[in-house]
Amino acid sequence: MKPAKSSRGLLFFALVGLCWGSAQAQMAPGSDVDSLLALARENNPDYAGTRHEAAAAAQRVEAAGALSDPRLRTELMDVTRGGEQSATLLPGRAGSTRYLLMQDIPWWGKRDLKRELAQREADGATATAAASWNDLAAQIRTLHAQRYYLAHRERLTREILDLLVRLEGVAQLRYASGLAAQQDVIRAQVEQTTMRNELIALDTEQRQLSARINALLGRPATAPLASPERLRALPAPAQLDYASLEERARARNPLLAVDSSRIDAAEKSRELAYKNRYPDFTLGVAPNQFQNELKQWDLMLEMNIPLQQSSRRAQEREAEAMLAAARSRREATANRIVGELAETIAALDAAQRTGVLVRDSLLPQAELTFRAALAGYENGKLDFATLLDAQRQIRQAKLDEIRSRAEVHIRVADIERIIGEEL
């Protein structure tokens, strides 16, 4: 009875361990790109930093247009009352006490311009955060497609390795029957060693990509990731029209939005520079205390005199130059984005056509060639080298098909980065 109980206990713990491992695998992100994007939006520190900067810039808008704090000045006059007493700091015992309350008031329109300038800068910070997320999402989509390619390449390599093991068995049977040379067996073993070496290289690449993705997700570098089982659905061909994509890129690319905010801010800075030709004011009211009573009230108006015209003209020219620079920078960004969009669409078209060619023509031809070569080798009509060549052709065709599939998704991710939104 005890051995039976012990066996049931071991079986129970084995099942628990298996279920726990399965649950852990299901909990790990990475099977699709959406799970990675959700984690990155919450945990990526660079994107979080840009969001906090945008929030800070939004808080500066209200403060930018506010009046400065008023100032209070207290003046004790005739503190000895003509020498009748020792000096005193008590307002009721001094000859008189003057309280001056002052408020700085800028020229009309300056506060609104400062507020609008701060708002444009806040818009730019928000656009910068959007650009940060746009680049981050594109990186994750690209890395996911690369992991998908490597995972399927590893599966294909293992399938080819199993095939080579079977081919080695065929070669050994033929060698034992005196129908083939020992060199055929050795060649099959060499090919297996090459496949195993490739599996080591693939494992290294997968771990490197996993470390990069975990860094983008704000996770430990060795945190587990699920195997990439699927890619996203591709957009309809009508959505990949160059003219419509260019229009969307010009309207929604976050880098262009950042440059547009800089242009708006530069325009407000220029208007503010011209407003500085006019003076600012300080208003004040001053009650005067004699002993314990307020018996006299004074009003004060102070203004700065903008006499330093040369420095103000230099500031105005600086504002004009900064505005021209912002406009030129936006134009350069637009040209770069449009050019990159055209290149990406061309690369996407090439990847799609390559995939169709490999899937519809090259792969079926390679499969027929391999079957014919295998049958010919078994019948003694072909040598083993020809069989290996046919095996390499079918493997290369399958690799090209997987590569073109991943390349299409990488190019789609590039297009989404350029237009600033998902297709």
Give a verbal description of the structure.
With 423 residues, the chain is of the alpha+beta class. It has a single domain (36-66, 106-419), classed as Outer membrane efflux proteins (OEP) (Up-down Bundle). The chain contains 9 helices and 4 strands, in the order αααββααααββαα. The chain has a 4-stranded antiparallel beta sheet, with no helix packed on it.
Q: What is the count of structural domains?
A: 1
The fold-level CATH name is Outer membrane efflux proteins (OEP)
- Give the helix level as a range of percent: over 70%
CATH superfamily: Outer membrane efflux proteins (OEP)
First-residue to last-residue Cα separation: 65 Å
Helix/strand order, N-terminal first: HHHEEHHHHEEHH
Individual helix count: 9
- Please give the CATH architecture: Up-down Bundle
Key attributes of the depicted protein:
423 residues; alpha+beta; Outer membrane efflux proteins (OEP); 4-stranded antiparallel beta sheet; elongated; disordered N terminus
